[in-house]
Design a protein that fits this description.
Helix content is about 20%, strand content about 25%. It is α+β, with helices and mostly antiparallel strands. The protein has one domain: HIT-like (HIT family, subunit A, 2-Layer Sandwich), CATH 3.30.428.10. A five-stranded antiparallel beta sheet has the order 1-2-3-5-4, covered by helices on one side. Strand 2 (about 25-30) and strand 3 (about 35-45) form a beta hairpin. The longest helix is centred in the middle third of the chain and has 16 residues, at about 60-75. The structure holds guanosine-5'-monophosphate and zinc ion (ZN). Guanosine-5'-monophosphate binds near residues 86 and 95. Guanosine-5'-monophosphate binds near residues 14 and 92.
């Protein structure tokens, strides 16, 4: 059992605003948004970052793209968007549970 913030959210121990869910991933609003639309696409499985993923878990990459596609089609003003990953502490990752930022609405200067 992992003690990280996103695992706590996934277990329902911490509140969050859920935008979408599948068997593999969850999408929540970022608590400190850097743009009008700023979501976090989070695998349900705890993985620290891309470089520590097992090869069998690379399917999460396509699940995340499929979710970005779905969000762009269903969220108003999100037809164009950025996906952003900080992978590793020196790349700026703060929460060490792999996640992808979905950013839209006003993209200039956002991440
Ligand atoms: P990164 O690790 O890629 O630098 O970014 C982590 C992101 O998670 C930040 O944008 C931060 O605002 C967000 N975040 C950190 N803690 C929480 C939390 O408890 N709830 C939510 N919804 N977002 C969080
Ligand atoms: Zn975790």
């Amino acid at each position: 059992m992992q003690d990280c913030v996103f695992c706590k959210i996934l277990r329902g121990e911490l509140a969050s605003e859920v935008i979408a869910e599948t068997d593999d991933i969850i999408v929540i609003k970022d608590i400190n948004p850097k743009a009008p639309i700023h979501f976090l696409i989070i695998p349900r499985k705890h993985m620290n970052d891309i470089q520590s993923m097992a090869h069998v878990d690379f399917f999460y990459g396509s699940k995340i793209f499929a979710m970005a596609y779905h969000l762009s089609k269903t969220i108003p003003n999100a037809q164009d968007f950025k996906l952003h990953v900080n992978s590793g502490k020196t790349a700026g990752q703060i929460v060490m549970h792999l996640h992808v930022h979905f950013i839209a609405g006003k993209l200039e200067g956002a991440l």
